[in-house]
Specification:
Distance between the termini: 19 Å
Number of strands: 17
CATH topology of the largest domain: Uridine Diphospho-n-acetylenolpyruvylglucosamine Reductase, domain 3
CATH architecture of the largest domain: 2-Layer Sandwich
Radius of gyration: 21 Å
């Protein structure tokens, strides 16, 4: 966890308090760590800040129009509250925000701790990303305070907004280094009536990814595709069905007649890969929650000291990336996004958390890698986020300079000196 808190945390009650806190930090020349509930606090470089700006009091849904598929909330609103609010109207956040609690060992009483602001600032999506897009694709607008101590707004409450540059896309994935979000507006979508999962058992990684790619190119309208080798499958609800075998899972969502029709399409298509099984709605939801939250690699299962990497690559390259890593170090993997997202669990005895190994494999096959879990001492010395080329690094610094010229907001969280 980053070294923070040289002074007592600042706990603003509203957007005006946030502006005053940032302006005071600018005047003093001090830095701020931006947190909501701290569920992603252990992700990123382990840097040192002067004061923590705790946004947890900025909570509550401020507008919800189910008919317009729009919701606005203060940035510190718990995701659990957002989920409950939209679920009551049979709606959902379609990109399936991840709960990092199990992976980082920070879950309390089984309830997710993340906030809507932290979720958008990290821009990390779950299995439905392959059809619904990332968090930024559902981010309609926001109010925020820049590192200059100035309040500004971007976007609005409609899906199409052509009033200027879409700063929502820039804020998403900036990890609080450009501005402090105070209020956000997002798009919600109808919740599918039901779901099931079509599953194959016993395929190796390459065959599993091949099956997923073939299914994704079909008329099956698949909303999620993942392959869990046997060691990962054994730590999920599907263990009793999979036995000691891998599971290749394809989720179907919608109304039941449509699901049954698409199930038959997949059964015929995937027959060459082996016998197809079906997980009903309850086990299906549990399986995809495990894939979303990477619970087979949870700290309670594997130990918090074992590094976890998130590798994004082309689906066809996923098995090659994993194989290259496994040649150089013992590794366990999970494939999501039809093979395009590879979660990699390495041993705790690697001095650099496997950074040189993982980044070499990515360089050979394409994509980018982010270190999600590692001890603070390692995160302070190795690159955590994808490394930039010279041009992108210069652009990143210029953007930071424009929004936060005094380096007040989360300096060093993503990149050293930025």
């Amino acid at each position: 966890m980053p070294v923070t808190g040289m002074t007592d945390p600042a706990r603003p009650r509203d957007a005006d308090d946030v502006r005053e806190a940032v302006a005071a930090a600018v005047a003093r020349g001090t830095s701020l760590e931006i947190v909501g509930h701290g569920s992603r606090r252990a992700i990123g470089r382990a840097a040192q800040w002067d004061t923590t700006l705790d946004l947890s009091a900025l909570s509550g849904v401020t507008l919800y129009e189910p008919e317009e598929l729009v919701l606005s909330a203060r940035a510190g609103t718990p995701l659990a509250e957002i989920d409950a609010t939209v679920a009551a109207k049979n709606q959902q956040l379609a990109f399936e925000p991840i709960d990092y609690g199990p992976l980082l060992g920070e879950t309390r009483d089984g309830a997710p701790r993340g906030t809507i602001g932290g979720m958008l600032a990290s821009n990390l999506a779950g299995p439905r990303r392959i059809v619904a897009g990332a968090a930024r694709d559902h981010f309609l607008g926001f109010s925020a305070v820049s590192g200059r101590g100035e309040t500004f707004k971007s976007g609005g409450r409609v899906v199409k907004n052509v009033t200027g540059y879409d700063l929502s896309k820039l804020a998403a994935g900036s990890w609080g280094t450009l501005a402090v979000l105070t209020d956000v507006t997002i798009k919600v979508l109808p919740r599918p009536e039901t779901e099931e999962t079509v599953a194959l058992f016993g395929l190796d990684d390459r065959k599993g990814v091949e099956a997923m790619i073939r299914a994704m190119g079909s008329m099956g309208e698949i909303s999620a595709a993942a392959h869990l080798p046997a060691y990962a499958a054994s730590r999920t609800i599907a263990a009793s069905l999979a036995g000691d075998r891998a599971i290749t899972a394809l989720r179907l969502e919608g109304v039941l007649p449509s699901i049954l029709h698409r199930q038959h399409i997949l059964e015929a298509l995937l027959k060459p890969f082996g016998e197809v099984s079906v997980l009903a709605e309850g086990p299906s939801r549990s399986l995809w929650r495990a894939v979303r939250d990477v619970t087979p690699f949870a700290a309670a299962e594997t130990g918090a000291a074992r590094p976890v990497w998130r590798v994004s690559t082309a689906p066809t390259a996923g098995p090659a990336v994993a194989a290259d890593i496994a040649v150089r170090a013992p590794a366990e993997v999970i494939y999501d996004w039809s093979g395009g997202l590879v979660w990699v669990l390495l041993g705790a005895d690697l001095d650099d958390a496997g950074s040189s190994i993982v980044r070499a494999a990515v360089a050979d096959h394409g994509g980018h890698a982010t270190l999600i879990r590692a001890p603070a001492a390692i995160r302070a010395t190795v690159p955590v986020f994808p490394e930039h080329d010279a041009v992108t690094a210069l652009l990143t610094r210029r953007i930071k300079q424009n929004f936060d010229p005094k380096a007040v907001l989360n300096p060093g969280r993503m990149y050293a000196g930025v």
